[in-house]
Amino acid sequence: MMNKELLFNTSYVDGKWSTNTSETFKVYNPANGEVIAEIRDDDASIVEQAITAADKAFKQWSGKTASERSKILEKWYDLICENQEDLAKIMTYECGKPLTESRGEVSYGASFIKWFAEEGKRTYGDVIPSTSNSKRIVTIKQPIGVVGAMTPWNFPLAMITRKVAPALATGCTVVVRPSEETPLTALAIAKLSKDAGFPNGVFNVVVGKDAPTMGKILCESNLVKKISFTGSTKVGQLLMSQSAKTLKKMSLELGGNAPFIVFEDADLDAAVQGAMVSKYRNAGQTCVCVNRFLVHENVYDEFVEKFVAEVLKLKIGNGWVEKVEIGPLIHKKALEKTEDFIVDAKNKGGEILCGGNKIDQFFYEPTVIGEANTKMDLTHEEIFGPVAAIFKFSTDEEALRMANDTKYGLASYFYSQNISRCWKVAEALEYGMVGINEGLISTEVAPFGGIKHSGMGREGSKYGVEDYLEIKYLCFGNME
Questions:
Q1: CA separation (Å) from 194 to 79, 186, 315, 396?
Q2: Domain 258-444, classified CATH 2.30.30.100, yes or no
Q3: Whole-angstrom distance, CA of residue 278 vs CA of residue 99
Q4: Among 60, 119, 304, 461, which residue is least crowded by beta carbons within 10 Å?
Q5: EC annotation (predicted)?
Q6: Separation between Cα atoms, residue 419 and residue 416, nearest integer Å
Q7: Could you give the CA distance from residue 2 to residue 76 in angstroms, rounded to a whole number?
Q8: Residue 263 phi, psi dihedral angles, 5° rounding
């Protein structure tokens, strides 16, 4: 059974549940296509209301001490943890990931609230040695203002908390626009934010199908001072363009094309385990999932044999079934895109080592493609599905050239037992994050983000508060 007190079907603005419209849109279970909810389809006016409410609440919220804000964030964290099982069930219903993964996401998402509840107390300024005896120089940090956060469907809880926790901790107010694929999780934690004691207007969630218009309003509003977005590079570029006239601060976590390099001195068993978790989590539907496996020719056959053996063990099915490891793809278009990658790879010389077939209209077999080459579409495009393509290389220089031959620069991984190689390769990889003998790198204590066309800004860690703050320089003169 699920706690129905966490189920809501309308926007949450200024501490109230919206009654603006009777129009609705459907939310589907991606594992079977069943309608699980009908959500009130608010139009652009709800975004304007939310921005106004957030702007009005900003003065009161930013005026609280860091400790006062921290206590409310801590209460929110506690409530999310107490409702972990129900939140996980909602998540599995609407995005399809296995229940075990959903439980893990609730913990992971809550960890950002816990971290920033403390980190918000540490937004220190500086006293700068003056150039004159008659002057004193000081810097202070102040919250930037109203924040617009736009989040994707693949991590419907963690992508929200990773953005809003630092914003709220530093004194900003927020307007969240979650994906229309997964609004239920966002609305559930909005309810818990109300229970935690956030003042009206501090945390707002707007839901509706018209993502382009809602995003445009957030970007063009003079009241919104910061945009944080996770999604495709194409949309990120559009939002950046729309924000140009108001010169907003922006955090963009965009597309990826992660390489996973296996050098000849790698611990192959450890590399295989790292490959599994970095490729097939959430059926390959994460921004840091491996896109290309680059394996040294001397260990290629052994790695492939071990890797394929593990892939064949994966249990596929509805996320509600215990021990299921691969759930459905989010919708029909995602499945069709996966099929297109497979057909293209076959036509260009790829060898299907396992999988390669659609199970039904919701699920695709975990697939491994051998003898991959750079002519294949999956070399240059983000796969976002349970497909692993394996390339060969012969030298370190070739591996680095292949790894960096992409416009993206989010996450990368490699395995080697040579400490000198580890340092040199880590420094040479053109990515914001590097996993060294590790396939699972996301944590609230480390900075998450990319370079090049994978975006700008960092989320998590001590660096995660900086994009929500303005530095103010104070010069005290005539001190004689």
A1: 11, 13, 39, 53
A2: no
A3: 18
A4: 60
A5: 1.2.1.16, 1.2.1.20, 1.2.1.79
A6: 8
A7: 20
A8: -80, 165
Question: How far is CA 3 from its chain centroid?
Answer: 26
pLDDT confidence of residue 1: 58
Using the CB atoms, write b or e for 352-378: b if 16+ within 10 Å.
ebbbbeeeeebbbbbbbbbbbeeebeb
Domain edges within the chain: 4-254+454-474, 258-444
Instruction: Kindly write down the DSSP assignment for every residue of 352-392, as one continuous string.
Output: EEE---B-SSS-B--EEEES--TTSGGGTS---SSEEEEEE
Contact 256, 450 (CB under 8 A): yes
Nearest to 379 by CA among 247, 480, 290: 290
| Cα angle: 90, vertex 93, 98; to 5 degrees | 100
| pLDDT band at 287; cut points 50, 70, 90 | very high
In CATH terms, the superfamily for domain 4-254+454-474 is: Aldehyde Dehydrogenase; Chain A, domain 1 (3.40.605.10)
CA dihedral (28, 29, 34, 35) positive or negative: negative
Query: Taking the mean position of all CA atoms in its chain, how far away is CA 244?
Result: 24
67-87 pLDDT, tens digit each: 999 999 999 999 999 999 999
Active site residue 470: no
**How far are the Cα atoms of 59, 296, 301, 357, 449 from residue 400, in angstroms, in the given order?**
50, 12, 21, 32, 20
Instruction: Name the average pLDDT for the chain.
Output: 97
- Residue type (1 letter), 399: A
Cβ atoms 50, 11 nearer than 8 A: yes
User: Of 243, 247, 280, which Cα lies nearest the Cα of 388?
Assistant: 280
DSSP string, 303-341: HHHHHHHHHTT--BS-TTSTT--B---SSHHHHHHHHHH
Provide the pLDDT for residue 480: 79
Residue type (1 letter), 320 = W
- Give, as one character, the DSSP assignment of residue 198: P
Q: Are 10 and 207 in contact (CB under 8 A)?
A: yes
Please tell me the distance from the alpha carbon of residue 223 to that of residue 56, in angstroms, as a whole number.
10
For the whole model, what pTM was predicted?
Answer: 0.96
Among candidate residues 94, 119, 253, 466, the one labeled active-site is: 253
Structure tokens, 471: 């530095």
Structure tokens that stand for 309 in this block: 């053996």
pLDDT at 290: 97
4-254+454-474 and 258-444 in the same fold = no
**% of the chain surpassing 70 pLDDT:** 100
pLDDT, tens digit, for every residue of 353-366?
Answer: 999 999 999 999 99
pLDDT value, residue 4 = 84
